[in-house]
Write a structure and sequence with these properties.
It contains 15 helices and 4 strands. By secondary structure, the chain is of the alpha+beta class.
């Protein structure tokens, strides 16, 4: 009888580790399935698998934390809060769940609690995601209208992890908003040198160059966006809009320079070639590297019944310009009419 009991005891001990191993394999399998679904943005499946994992391993804080993040994505904020609190209940030192509670309260616009939890997470010197906590703490202070603290914590986020692109882009945008162009340029160039060549980086660098009057560099940065196969339609639209602004500003400055340096000329009897209608605005239709090409387009458009066309030469470029209008609204109305004729262009100032 004693031998039989000893045999049963040994048998149970031998089986226990296998049972624990099987249990761990099960929750890890469910956890991996849940996270795969989460990254695929299938939040319904992610929540189902992660919830199953909490049933198998209720003492695993990272499972509760992951479930909370999934609930937060679908704006189930109360369920997310309970999941994060459960993670902290089973592991009070699990700072990632504490940080996520802060992010959750930021989404819920409970800024006092958001600051509390984010600062508590930052007090953990072993926490390896401080840059994310600093970033969200910055966003809290932005919502509170405290610009100094917003900038302070954005800088901390990028200092703790210079490769944190989301924080870097927000800091760069903040520099642009504050017209701190030197700091913005340095930030974007540093990102590019570290091989972060996202369309947003080049687009914002182009804005820096545009705002500081360096139009050739601005066009180079815009070209990088337009040539990037990964650029979205929104990026391309923004790039074209910025390019139009650059060209208009170049045109305006060139006209001003010509006006200042133009020598008085003998008045001639007005002809179809030298007449210039008065007005501050015009529509630029095209530009050519040769005068012949520009005049050929003028002739072609004239045959279609379009008058008030003339060629302007600037720095070796021959631009075909149409009309003169007293207001931008008048020019815009005429631009729309031209589009109906399948003629495209953009408004320029010609004062």
């Amino acid at each position: 009888m004693k031998k039989f009991l000893l045999f049963c005891l040994l048998l149970s001990l031998a089986c226990a580790p296998k049972s624990d191993t099987k249990k761990e394999e099960e929750w890890r399998y469910l956890y991996d399935l849940g996270m795969s679904a989460f990254y695929a943005k299938n939040y319904s499946e992610a929540i189902a698998r992660l919830y199953q994992a909490t049933r198998v391993a209720p003492r695993e804080p990272k499972v509760w934390n992951a479930l909370g993040i999934a609930y937060m994505e679908v704006e189930e904020y109360n369920k997310a809060k309970q999941a994060f609190l459960k993670a902290l209940q089973v592991s009070p030192s699990f700072s990632e769940a504490r940080m996520n509670l802060g992010i959750l309260h930021l989404k819920m616009k409970d800024y006092r609690q958001a600051i509390k939890y984010l600062e508590e997470a930052l007090q953990d010197e072993t926490f390896d995601k401080k840059h994310i906590a600093f970033y969200h703490l910055a966003k809290v202070y932005k919502e509170l209208g405290k610009e100094d603290k917003y900038m302070e914590y954005l800088k901390k986020a990028t200092a703790y992890n210079p490769m944190f692109l989301e924080a870097q882009l927000e800091l760069g945008s903040a520099y642009l908003d504050k017209r701190q162009y030197e700091e913005a340029e340095k930030l974007y160039k540093n990102l590019i040198s570290n091989n972060f060549k996202a369309p947003e980086v080049f687009l914002n660098l182009a804005r820096v160059y545009y705002e500081t009057g360096r139009y050739e560099k601005a066009k180079e940065a815009v070209r990088a966006v337009l040539e990037d196969k990964q650029a979205s339609n929104l990026h391309r639209t923004q790039a074209y809009d910025l390019l139009s602004k650059i060209l208009i500003e170049e045109q305006r400055r060139t006209y001003q320079r010509i006006r200042k340096t133009r020598k008085p000329v003998r008045k001639e009897k007005p002809t179809q070639e030298n007449i210039r209608p008065s007005g501050k605005y015009a529509v630029q239709i095209a530009a050519f590297s040769t005068e012949k090409g520009a005049k050929a387009l003028v002739e072609k458009l004239s045959q279609r019944g379009l008058s008030n066309l003339f060629v302007v030469e600037m720095s070796g470029i021959y631009k075909v310009v149409y009309g003169r209008f007293q207001t931008r609204e008048e020019a815009q109305a005429e631009l729309e009419r031209l589009k109906d004729m399948n003629i495209y262009g953009f408004i320029v100032e010609v004062e």
